[in-house]
Task: inverse folding
């Protein structure tokens, strides 16, 4: 009866592969037709389409309503950028803004022949001057570093505070794997946002170094659950034709949070008020998440086909499509998911295992590069706000470039191009060349490197989400993001080597990481123009695994698309 139903379905099945998948778990269908559900009687003349085919058919072109849905759903991503980088501005150390108040300090100033460079980090630290005893801060701005005497020998505490965000992010993403695949991307994103908002707004009342570490852990815990959940939700609503645009769009919104943070920090001189402002914005960004429905892919994987069709019908209205789903059966395999079963799938399916391990390595290296640059601009440039504004602006240019090159060259080739340019820029930054009173070759080359690393990071999100099957996407994205958080943690400390060792040492480390990333990408398959796999079995078939193709032949189903 199943085979007759497949034969009676329309010709689109042969063209796109929208038929019932034959897997080792569905081979028993001939004796147990109820093992796979489609929501339709197989004897009816209806179209059997996958979720990808339905979304692609509904999509009639980008319109204002659909664009606003993607924009508003991605707005919480701005908060992730703000909370990652807020310690740069709330904990800055004004090494050039202080004055002597003790005989010891005035004596050291005299020994320097009243040099203008005395009022700097070198003059303060080499003479072991103490705040409040030998000098007073004269900055018109406040920071927790000044309040808690974090400077010179204790400056590493600032890096510890910044890096603890990524410890929380790693813990949260490990926990979120089960949340995403059981309760959905939307609900996980909402929960993460609330946790981070509460932690951020509580920071001004927790006035010590140890308390700030706890705040940073909860900020990271919540915001990267939120970011990953929002990203999965948006990508799973995106037609295959515009996924290379939608994915960078999310990262562009993320980068706008960086620019907004620079503006907030510039106009608000008090670090406590900066925390309160960003915490309040967290709650505001929750509104779109409460309004929008869950992902139809998640509903399908959980076996709720009718709910998925209702969501797709709403999606059709947003797209101004007149398509009706009454005569369409969503073709899928009911999968009762268990966390440990998902783990065992990595042993059962070799291509899934290989691709996931390579993606973990890619995310680790790109995050170390990405955040190593972002937390190091204060070391390269003397003007904190100008340097970070340029760095944030360069990310927009990089994201636009990633859209163009990803569309023209594909995911894999564009990533390799960006990494090669980034590698060359790192070597270009090593000579000590001044281009003017306020510009150096290192600063310009690092801006170029920052752009290419950002572009590669942008494509990396899309690349990984397309390689991962729907049934495991939440878990794989969380695992990858957790590895990225480890790289992010280390990247912050790599930038500290700029002061401790020769400035070319961190550049050389970044160049080595870039070469590792290039090697890993070479072993990944290109996903450009291909459908998103729904299950681990699809990953094997799309990769051309002969073992799984032979299972198809034995069951008589040779129609699976070979996109």
Result:
């Amino acid at each position: 009866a199943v085979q007759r139903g497949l034969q009676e379905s329309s010709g689109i099945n042969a063209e796109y592969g929208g038929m019932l998948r034959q897997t080792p778990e569905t081979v028993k269908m001939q004796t147990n037709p109820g093992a796979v559900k489609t929501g339709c009687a197989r004897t009816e003349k209806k179209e059997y389409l996958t979720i990808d085919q339905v979304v692609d058919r509904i999509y009639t072109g980008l319109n204002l309503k659909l664009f606003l849905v993607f924009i508003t759903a991605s707005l919480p991503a701005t908060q992730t950028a703000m909370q990652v980088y807020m310690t740069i501005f709330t904990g800055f150390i004004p090494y050039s803004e202080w004055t002597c108040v003790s005989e010891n300090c005035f004596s050291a100033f005299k020994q320097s022949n009243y040099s203008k460079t005395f009022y700097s980090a070198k003059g303060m630290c080499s003479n072991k001057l103490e705040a409040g005893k030998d000098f007073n801060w004269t900055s018109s701005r406040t920071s927790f570093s000044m309040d808690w005497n974090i400077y010179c020998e204790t400056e590493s505490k600032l890096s510890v505070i910044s890096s603890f965000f990524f410890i929380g992010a790693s813990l949260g993403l490990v926990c979120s794997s089960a949340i995403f695949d059981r309760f959905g991307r939307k609900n996980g994103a909402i929960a993460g946002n609330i946790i981070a908002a509460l932690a951020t707004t509580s920071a001004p009342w927790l006035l010590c170094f140890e308390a700030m570490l706890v705040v940073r852990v909860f900020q990271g815990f919540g915001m990267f659950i939120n970011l990953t959940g929002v990203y999965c939700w948006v990508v799973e609503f995106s037609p295959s034709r515009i996924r290379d645009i939608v994915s960078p769009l999310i990262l562009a919104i993320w980068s706008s949070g960086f620019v907004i943070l620079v503006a907030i920090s510039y106009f608000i001189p008090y670090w406590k008020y900066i925390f309160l402002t960003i915490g309040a914005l967290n709650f505001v960004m929750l509104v779109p998440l409460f309004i929008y429905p869950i992902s139809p892919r998640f509903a399908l994987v959980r076996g709720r086909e009718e709910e998925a069709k209702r969501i797709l019908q709403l999606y059709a209205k947003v797209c101004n499509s007149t398509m009706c789903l009454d005569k369409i059966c969503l073709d899928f395999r009911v999968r009762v998911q268990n966390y440990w079963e998902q783990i065992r799938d990595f042993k059962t399916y070799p291509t899934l295992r290989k691709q996931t391990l390579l993606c973990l390595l890619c995310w680790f290296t790109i995050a170390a590069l990405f955040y190593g640059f972002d937390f190091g601009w204060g070391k390269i440039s003397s003007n904190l706000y100008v340097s970070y504004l340029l760095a944030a602006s360069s990310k927009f240019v990089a994201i636009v470039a990633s859209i163009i090159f990803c569309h023209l060259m594909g995911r894999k080739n564009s990533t390799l191009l960006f990494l090669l340019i980034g590698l060359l820029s790192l070597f270009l930054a090593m000579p000590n060349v001044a281009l003017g009173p306020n510009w150096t070759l290192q600063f310009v080359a690092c801006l170029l490197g920052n752009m290419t690393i950002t572009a590669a990071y942008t494509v990396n999100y899309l690349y990984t989400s397309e390689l991962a099957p729907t049934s495991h996407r939440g878990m794989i994205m969380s695992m990858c993001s957790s590895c990225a958080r480890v790289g992010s943690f280390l990247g912050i400390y790599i930038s500290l080597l700029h002061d401790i060792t020769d400035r070319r040492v961190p550049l050389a480390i970044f160049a080595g990481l870039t070469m590792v990333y290039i090697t890993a990408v070479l072993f990944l398959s290109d996903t450009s123009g291909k459908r998103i796999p729904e299950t681990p079995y699809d990953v094997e078939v799309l990769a051309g695994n002969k073992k799984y193709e032979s299972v198809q032949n034995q069951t008589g189903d040779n129609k699976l698309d070979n996109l």
